[in-house]
Amino acid sequence: MRLKLNRTNLFGRILKFKKSSELRYSDESDLHTTQLSSKVANSLISTLQPHHTTPRHPTHPPPSPPSLSLSLSPHSIEKLSIFPFLTIVFLVEHVSSDFSTIFPTCPQTFLHACCINFPFLLFHLYIYQDTNVHFLAREGSGCSHLGSEDNNLIWVPINFVILLKFSQKGVLKSFKSAEILGLFMTLGSSAKKKKMVVAGNGLFYPIIGFASCVAFIYMSFGNLGSNFGNQTKLSFVGRNGTQFMLDGKAFYINGWNSYWLMDNSVDEHRKPRVRQILQAGAKMGLTVCRTWAFNDGDYNALQISPGHFNEQVFKALDHVIVEARQQGIRLLLCLVNNLQAYGGKTQYVKWAWEEGVGLSASNDSFFFDPSIRNYFKNYVKTLLTRKNTLNGIQYRNDPTIFAWELINEPRCITDASGDTLQDWIEEMSAFVKAIDKNHLLTVGLEGFYGPKSPKRLTVNPEMWASRLGSDFIRNSKIPNIDFASVHIYPDHWFHDEEFHNNLKFVSKWMRSHIEDGDNELNKPVMFTEYGLSNENKDFEPSQRGRFYKTILDVIYKSAKKNQSGAGALAWQFFVGGMDEYNDEFGIIPWESPSEYKMMIEQSCRLARLKGPTQQQRNLKDLCSRRQ
Length: 627
Prior knowledge:
Layout: H1 7-18, H2 38-46, E1 67-72, H3 74-82, H4 84-94, H5 97-102, H6 111-127, E2 133-138, H7 155-168, H8 177-193, H9 204-221, E3 238-240, E4 243-246, E5 249-250, E6 253-257, H10 261-266, H11 272-283, E7 288-292, E8 303-305, E9 308-309, H12 311-327, E10 330-334, H13 344-354, H14 365-368, H15 370-384, E11 401-405, H16 419-435, E12 440-442, H17 455-458, H18 472-476, E13 484-488, H19 490-493, H20 499-521, E14 525-530, H21 541-560, E15 565-571, H22 593-610, H23 619-624
Parallel strand pairs: 6-7, 6-15, 7-10, 10-11, 11-12, 13-14, 14-15
Antiparallel strand pairs: 1-2, 3-4, 4-5, 8-9
Helix pairs in contact: 1-6, 3-6, 4-6, 6-8, 7-9, 8-9, 11-12, 13-15, 15-16, 20-21, 21-22
């Protein structure tokens, strides 16, 4: 939730809190504050460093921290109010949770809210000449007394360092320039009412406050310094016929799947995995990661029940998007699962039955039940119009998102003709495009040819593949579908085939779909999953490298000829300690030297053909070392 700046309402709210028994005022004149030593300054800055987190399932709640009384003189309050950055650090990191209950619009985790509210609060208390304000602060923080008449200059470097720290964390990007200007205009007008313009040192704090405001806006929105060098303006990926387009150039994709990003972002002790895998992808020159933007009714569910969402999990997805942007990775976000993992269409059918509106117990009723269709539409609308709490951008307006995928591996076995699934894709693709005209859209197909396609006999792995209710050509021709999607799992589709025969099938399978993209669809074809099981009876580690190479070579040849084979995404990449998320296809890329090297080489040769994207910052040096 972003705050809307409203001076009248905000000051009214502050006046209300001023009367609270939790804020105590005193007329004592013998309370003094000590000088801010360099040790205290370091303590303040150190509060920005990461904190240790509690276990995922703590058996007992953590004990409440002891508290002490902290006195702030009006002189200190004046300095805090014109330096909102220090106010954030001090109050957010050192004020106890009791204070958050008094000021519920500013819990400790909402730093962007604190930026707006606390400076107003402190300045208001100063304007009305309250002698002292007592807050509950964590004992041992090193900040039991702040402010004196003699420490003016030290506040400038402290606030500058804090400003840089917040810029690195991406906090500054969550504000609009109008909000920042409004804050300081309000402070200025309040100061004018108090006739604070005096000679000599009386001008020091207003001048420094104004300079701090200018620096804040310039560094937040002017891309100053190395912290903002990476935050270049992103363009949306589009398409021109059979090619993806980015910044006026053809864009061929080398990427991977990590379906688990949102789920791991929910818990603080698992959240670093997200940055770790995204950084690893960036170091390999990868450009797109496919991941789940759904979790329906499961553990850490995003959608708890139809139309009811877990805000904590939504914030986890916010984090994934912002982190991907910072690492120069775009996201292909899938909206629902055909399988039962993470709820999927099974959960939607269950919800309909629980509410007494379900037409059928079949999982395929997900595609034809009007109530379930409305459940899904409501979810899609909520997701696409979601405003990211970290950067303030609605998902539908964020170019970090490469594209949306309607459903992972859709099958409607109860209607082998394909009519039911076709109708669902037509309706849902039109619905998505009505809300979001910025992003590309794909279905999420496995790539099987339907019962009326002649390729069902020559290209499909076996006859069963044409009876699943999907049809690659028919489904992908729908006007609102921007590109076709295909998966590659020959060892799961065939029974007892030797590895070299599977490799031959892969080449044939890919060339057939690229041919369709060029001749039938006039759309890009993206191989959004490919993997080789390590549970095959004849599996050898070297086979996975040969499997990857076969696929990457086909994509490179397609790019070289300007054909529709637009990219491929490996299934799937992990970091260490994630066995519970792994399957027979997953790898830790840096622990698989052959595949790791292969992915980098693919990124380099695609970049040599079409040029690197703005986000592939390290690719020039990386590729030059490999020539």
